[in-house]
């Protein structure tokens, strides 16, 4: 299989397309032989235990666990014998790719006799389907749900909507999937967006907090207290790995968000806002603002005034 293109998508542009939702409940023999899927899948375990093998790594999923599968990754699944198996699953793309790249999950996944084959043949026409990944978080394959009831409620409602297929149902499917993805983000990251299992979680979290408290200042990232005992390149690498942003990108984000808050107050000039969030050059500030928000500070303020009138 040729290497497929990968597109990164941030939270602001996330608009998932739900392809298929199912609930499974049985005490019969169950297996998924080696295969790949062509979209993302989330499996939420209600009862029983699964043993997944993903790229040769063994994962044991039990009730309350979330299993996250990416496209084009070889995997297989078996049950622990004697277990009653019950789970929800959803197949989806992180954005709609268009009719030409869409496919039927019933034909590709559901109508396969997994119990009587040793492997699932590759669907050649789907083998080079593009991959879309989130830029701001990398989900681990196995996640322990902090509040399983929230997942169960979202999956139950999503499953009902998928079966009824009333007018506008794709909007509601998207809304419920966004809820589930939000729960997953919360379960795997700190409030500052650092992965909870990250080995330098404490140092990076403290560095982010320092940036929140000192964003107005001219920061030298090499002199942030938490970075003093790390080489500059290593600190930047750790920071990027943990947050998906470089220190400068996060600082810029914090400053622009604060600038927007000040603009919403309606009593500050662009120049005053520029200086109050840490920039000395109003032209540079305006350029950054337009790059991030798609409009100049003046046009942003004008748009707020229109909404208020």
From TrEMBL:
SUPFAM superfamilies documented for this protein: Homeodomain-like (SSF46689), Regulatory protein AraC (SSF51215)
Domain (HTH araC/xylS-type): residue spans on this chain: 205-303
InterPro entries the UniProt entry points to: AraC-bd, Homeodomain-like_sf, HTH-like, HTH_AraC, HTH_AraC-typ_CS, RmlC-like_jellyroll
PROSITE patterns: HTH_ARAC_FAMILY_1, HTH_ARAC_FAMILY_2
UniProt entry keywords in alphabetical sequence: DNA-binding, Transcription, Transcription regulation
Keyword rRNA-binding applies: no
GO molecular function: DNA-binding transcription factor activity; sequence-specific DNA binding
Keyword Ligase: no
UniProt protein name: AraC family transcriptional regulator
Organism expressing this protein natively: Paenibacillus psychroresistens
């Amino acid at each position: 299989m040729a290497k497929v293109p990968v597109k990164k998508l941030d939270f602001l542009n996330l608009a998932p397309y739900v392809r298929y939702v199912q609930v499974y409940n049985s005490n019969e023999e169950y297996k998924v032989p080696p295969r790949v899927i062509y979209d993302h899948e989330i499996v939420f375990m209600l009862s029983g235990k699964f043993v997944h093998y993903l790229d040769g790594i063994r994962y044991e999923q039990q009730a309350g666990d979330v299993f996250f599968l990416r496209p084009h990754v070889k995997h297989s699944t078996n049950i622990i014998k004697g277990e009653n198996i019950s789970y929800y699953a959803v197949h989806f793309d992180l954005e709609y790719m268009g009719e030409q790249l869409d496919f039927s999950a019933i034909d590709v996944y559901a109508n396969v006799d997994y119990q009587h084959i040793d492997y699932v043949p590759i669907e050649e026409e789907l083998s080079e389907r593009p991959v879309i990944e989130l830029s701001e978080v990398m989900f681990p394959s196995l996640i322990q749900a902090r509040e399983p009831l929230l997942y169960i409620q979202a999956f139950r409602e999503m499953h009902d909507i998928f079966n009824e297929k009333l007018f506008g149902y794709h909007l509601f499917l998207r809304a419920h999937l966004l809820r589930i993805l939000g729960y997953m983000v919360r379960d795997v990251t700190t409030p500052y967006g650092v992965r909870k299992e990250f080995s330098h979680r404490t140092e990076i979290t403290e560095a982010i907090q320092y940036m929140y408290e000192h964003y107005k200042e001219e920061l030298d990232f090499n002199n942030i207290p938490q970075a003093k005992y790390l080489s500059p390149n290593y600190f930047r690498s750790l920071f990027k790995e943990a947050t998906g942003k470089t220190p400068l990108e996060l600082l810029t984000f914090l400053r622009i968000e604060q600038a927007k808050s000040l603009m919403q107050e309606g009593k500050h000039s662009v120049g005053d806002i520029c200086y109050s969030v840490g920039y000395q050059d109003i032209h540079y500030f305006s350029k950054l603002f337009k790059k991030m928000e798609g409009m100049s500070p003046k046009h942003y303020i004008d748009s707020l005034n229109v909404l208020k009138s």
